[in-house]
Amino acid sequence: MIRYALICDHDHGFEAWFGSSADYDDQAARGLVECPVCASTAVTKQIMAPSVAGTKKTAIAADMAAKMQTMMTEAAREVRAHVEQNFDYVGDAFAREARDIHEGRSEKREIYGEATAAEVKKLKDDGVPCAPLPALPPDPSKVN
To answer: Of the N and C termini of the chain, which has fewer Cβ atoms inside 10 Å?
Structure first.
């Protein structure tokens, strides 16, 4: 597989994958390569260093991706642990309590809890600061 950076006659840049450079040449000659923005078939290659699948870099990239996933999962665990240890859990009263704190009707403190998507949208629309806790992958010892 080879990835090309392409550009149409209206200066819309995009990328596309082909089985080989000959596949690109054949499809372009038959008018099958089309701009995803304007549907122009007047498409040419841009100057680039093409990516070719199946190189040694693939194994290195996979290893790096696994390390990044492990690092991100650990960071998410640390964030959740910090929140659970230092914030007050308010359960499904989160939206009401966050609004009360924001509007000064309740003492200022850090909270976490449960809220529906609609409640979160309403909080954000009204300028009440809130953010989801990072999701964690399932515990391998607790799945089938």
So the answer is: C
Prediction pTM value: 0.53
> 119 in helix, strand or coil?
helix
Cα-Cα-Cα-Cα torsion 75, 78, 80, 82, nearest 10 degrees, comes to: -140
Q: What is the pLDDT of residue 70?
A: 86
The beta-strand segments (E) located in 9-143 are 13-18, 43-45, 51-52, 88-89, 111-112
Instruction: Write the pLDDT tens digit of every residue in 65-90.
Output: 888 888 888 888 999 999 999 999 99
Q: What is the rounded distance in angstroms from the CA atom of residue 126 to the CA atom of residue 144?
A: 42
The full length of the chain comes to 144
